[in-house]
Amino acid sequence: xxxxxxxxxxxxxxxxxxxxxxxxxxxxxxxxxxxxxxxxxxxxxxxxxxxxxxxxxxxxxxxxxxxxxxxxxxxxxxxxxxxxxxxxxxxxxxxxxxxxxxxxxxxxxxxxxxxxxxxxxxxxxxxxxxxxxxxxxxxxxxxxxxxxxxxxxxxxxxxxxxxxxxxxxxxxxxxxxxxxxxxxxxxxxxxxxxxxxxxxxxxxxxxxxxxxxxxxxxxxxxxxxxxxxxxxxxxxxxxxxxxxxxxxxxxxxxxxxxxxxxxxxxxxxxxxxxxxxxxxxxxxxxxxxxxxxxxxxxxxxxxxxxxxxxxxxxxxxxxxxxxxxxxxxxxxxxxxxxxxxxxxxxxxxxxxxxxxxxxxxxxxxxxxxxxxxxxxxxxxxxxxxxxxxxxxxxxxxxxxxxxxxxxxxxxxxxxxxxxxxxxxxxxxxxxxxxxxxxxxx
Length: 441
Ligand SMILES: [Ca+2]
Ligand SMILES: [Ca+2]
Ligand SMILES: [Ca+2]
Ligand SMILES: [Ca+2]
Description:
Laminin, 5 domains, 3-stranded antiparallel beta sheet, 6% helix, rod-shaped, vWF_C/EGF_Fibrillin, EGF-like domain, NOTCH1_EGF-like
């Protein structure tokens, strides 16, 4: 009994609150108290032992499991002798006088009999009042009967353990059968195509760098790096997928750099070049990305190559007479400009050539025209929209306004005329050769 927080007196259920009775006793809660009642029912001539586990005769001691037993023995007085005891005993199990349930085992005892359950069974009280024996499900007990590496299977009267997948039975040093990890990697040769990693309860296949594990979790498939990383260019030139890796290669006219992906242009025009191109007397070699251009300077009639400047044709002085000299170009210069294909151009344009005239004339006039374009039909050809001129006093800048697609060769002519008192006093022409190469690098 105790007082609750409102001052009322309430009963404590000792049977629930604490383990008030022994294992073989039934706890009965009463108002303000409790009592323990022995589950053991001993018949006349027998009494419960001190621990309450068994019934004992005054003159005999035995400790059979008698929890399940109902003694229906003959009444025996305490004064009987042991010898008489034996002679007087009736085997109730034999005679069928016992009261054991269908699944119980009857065991005869001196002065009575006991009903026990087969191994692996436990007693169950039936609602009708009798007892029966039911199988113990060892697999659902709190205490594990099988190791964590095994599955438990209940059977009537017993149970068995079966190793889980990845484990197998093997006797240990104490000859206890236990479930040990199977080293699949060594037990099954060729289980994994490339690498096998054993671990407790399983295994895993892994692949060499450049490969990925297939759907079957054992074969290794090459990673096509060229395809997987196509948005992030692995190679400046071409990407070639190889088993376990990839390789870069470059178009003709380039060499693959030591870094394995950059393409470096071969300068065919370099004097130490092994290519030996443009060997003609009036040839001018222009190196382009991925190639080169050879331009032979053929001066117009009345002009000859300047001995000081190979890219310049000068008017033969004795050819020109009087006013005519002022409207005829005094010289032609040949200028070579190279671009890669689709070069990004800022909206304000990009200066590709600058021509300066003498300062002492009243006025200078510039004129730009497209002379020739060489490109295959699938290439977007340059138009007047691509170019512009920007004049500043005696100087003019030729601007590229839009990106150009290669390969294409464009020949432009920029002529400059100088004036004094509104009269032309001289002229020169700059020929611009624009070589747009095939690739963007
Ligand atoms: Ca069982
Ligand atoms: Ca394993
Ligand atoms: Ca690959
Ligand atoms: Ca080149």
